[in-house]
Design goal:
The complex is a heterodimer. Chain A is of the alpha/beta class. Chain A is built from 8 helices and 9 strands. In chain A, a hairpin with a 5-residue loop joins strand 1 and strand 2. The longest helix of chain B is centred in the last third of the chain and has 38 residues. Classes of the chains: A alpha/beta, B mainly alpha. Magnesium ion binds next to helix 1 of chain A.
Chain lengths: 254, 280
């Protein structure tokens, strides 16, 4: 493993103030290193601040303490991040293909040169033929897959994914997991993946970081030494079972 | 902006090619009851007039109204073509300026809080003046004619456009802003790619309200002072207790309003095709 982390998080803190003036300490003290090319998953109870953590990394939420070091030599955090949000967040007034091309326009990259890539990505997420459809003609699962294609269009080095497959049915979800691993391996991306599926986290990741309930800290960062490339049957191995138990343990769910 | 418009337009064009004959047939099928109702209403009106021997200076018969509109010998006296073109010009000018001004002001006050704090109080103040009360002033400034009447139309019609557009520009899901902000979108990109298209449905509902108000404004202008226009005919005929052209005028005004409303609705469908999907 390379010794300079792509992102190094230390003592990260976030306190929200609600409209009624109440203080909510979402993140108390988060420490996490993410190395180039790594696939890191984050699991934790709902409301513990997983989304907040991703948004801070994307510069959408201001942190209230701690530091985030980014290896700016190996990637440009202003242009080389892809964010898949919890909701699809498609623009109603754009056809599917134009939704996928949105980041290209924002980053002022030539649109025509990316058209083919957009079509490839739509094919990749199983939406070939839906280029000209409007978002409200698609099911929720299809919309989320469009949003994944959109997050990949500008070929980001770092993917921040916030429960991206949460709304998909089990079968599609498994297919998407395999596709994601393929993209990750071929395109050498670094992925930070938030999920509430423990099996999904272990199946996908090099490392699983378990967050505690609010105010949250990283309870464990579990290395997953399952061989790659992984196929779905790895989940029936005893090794996989042990890892799952460890995660459940640290979530205090046993 | 051009890209946004192109995206919106390219999707609209296909809609234009829905066969027209099919639409007409479907229209008749759907609305034949209303047509029958309308004809029945006219018949009833005629019967009541004859039956109760109602004097024409109180309520004219539908035939008299029809004649005031279409019988060349009677209608010629009213110069409908000239009146309609005057009123329509006032309405059209009023509407175009209201739409343009309304959207522009909305964009300005949505763009920065400083501009908002300067423009908003002025706007609220102006809107609280009864606009009709300013008509006599316009007479002094601009004399008789199209301009003062169009101005009255603008005065009462632009405010709903401002309010609706502003609401639309600000009614953006915060998460949609995140979507472009994580890519460090510029302020104008956020505006053009997210805020403005998001506001289109709101803008159109404002424009529809504004068409109705433009008609009202133009007619009121003509009531106050004019030498042509449908409103002028209403006032002129009132002096002569000549009711058929008054009724005819009302029908024309209603038709103008309806026509303009319809036109805006067509534009709305063309520019907001994604909403059609929802309605279907
Ligand atoms: N903008 C905000 N204002 C106030 N509280 C917030 C805001 N965003 C998140 N929170 C609170 O912070 C906590 C963590 O939220 P979130 O990061 O969405 O959790 P998770 O994604 O792990 O479910 C929650 O308790 C939530 O209510
Ligand atoms: Mg969340």
């Amino acid at each position: 493993m390379p010794n300079t982390p792509l992102i190094s998080i230390r003592g990260l803190k976030k306190i929200f103030t609600t409209l009624t003036g109440e203080k909510i300490e979402a993140l108390e003290n988060i420490a996490l290193d993410i190395y180039p090319g790594e696939f890191v998953s984050i699991v934790g109870p709902s409301g513990c601040g997983k989304t907040t953590l991703l948004k801070i990394l994307a510069g959408l939420v201001q942190k209230d303490g701690g530091e985030i070091k980014v290896d700016k030599e190996s990637f440009d955090p202003t242009r080389e991040v892809g964010f898949v949000f919890q909701k699809p967040l498609l623009l109603d007034w754009r056809k599917v293909i134009d939704n996928v091309l949105l980041p290209i326009e924002i980053l002022k990259i030539n649109r025509a040169s990316m058209f083919g890539r957009a079509q490839e990505l739509l094919e990749l997420v199983g939406l070939k033929g839906f280029e000209k459809a409007y978002p409200n003609e698609l099911s929720g699962g299809m919309q989320q897959r469009v949003s994944i294609a959109r997050a990949l269009i500008h070929d980001p080095k770092l993917m921040l994914m916030d429960e991206p497959f949460g709304a998909l049915d089990a079968l599609t979800r498994e297919r998407m997991n395999l596709e994601l691993l393929r993209i990750w391996r071929e395109a050498k991306k670094t992925v930070l993946f938030v999920t509430h599926g423990i099996a999904e986290a272990i199946f996908l990741s090099d490392r699983v970081a378990v967050l505690s309930a609010r105010p949250s800290t990283v309870v464990t960062a579990l290395d997953i030494h399952l061989s790659r490339p992984r196929t779905l049957n790895v989940r029936t191995s005893p090794e996989f079972g042990k890892l799952s138990m460890k995660v459940y343990d640290s979530l205090e769910m046993v | 902006m051009i890209r946004t418009l192109r995206i919106i337009f390219s999707s609209s064009i296909s809609y234009l090619f829905v066969p027209v004959r099919m639409k007409a047939a479907a229209f008749l099928k759907r609305h034949y009851l209303k047509l029958l109702q309308f004809i029945g209403f006219l018949l009833l009106w005629q019967i009541i007039i004859v039956l109760f021997n109602i004097k024409e200076y109180i309520i004219p018969s539908p035939l008299a109204v029809f004649s005031a509109l279409f019988n060349p010998e009677v209608a010629a006296a009213y110069l409908w073509g000239k009146q309609i073109s005057a009123t329509l010009t006032e309405i059209a000018c009023g509407f175009v300026v209201s739409a343009f001004l309304g959207i522009l002001i909305a964009v300005i006050i949505s763009w920065s809080s400083l501009l908002r704090s300067i423009v908003m109080p002025l706007l609220v103040f102006f809107n609280s003046i009864p606009k009709i009360a300013m008509a006599p002033l316009f007479l002094i400034w601009f004399g008789y004619g199209i301009i003062p009447n169009a101005l009255i139309a603008i005065l009462i019609a632009f405010f709903p456009v401002v309010i609706n557009t502003t609401t639309g520009l600000n009614a953006v899901d915060r998460d949609l802003l995140d979507l472009v902000n994580y890519l460090h979108a510029k302020r104008w990109q956020v505006f053009i790619k997210i805020q403005f298209p998001n506001a289109l449905p709101y803008i159109f509902s404002g424009l529809k309200i504004s068409t109705t108000l433009c008609v009202v404004g133009a007619i009121i202008g003509e009531f106050i002072a004019s030498d042509k226009g449908v409103g002028f005919i209403l006032m002129d005929s009132q002096a002569l207790i000549d009711t058929p052209p008054m009724f005819a005028g009302l029908i024309i005004i209603a038709a103008l309003g309806l026509g303009l409303f319809g036109l805006i609705s067509i534009f709305e469908r063309l520019l907001i095709p994604w909403q059609r999907v929802e309605l279907a």
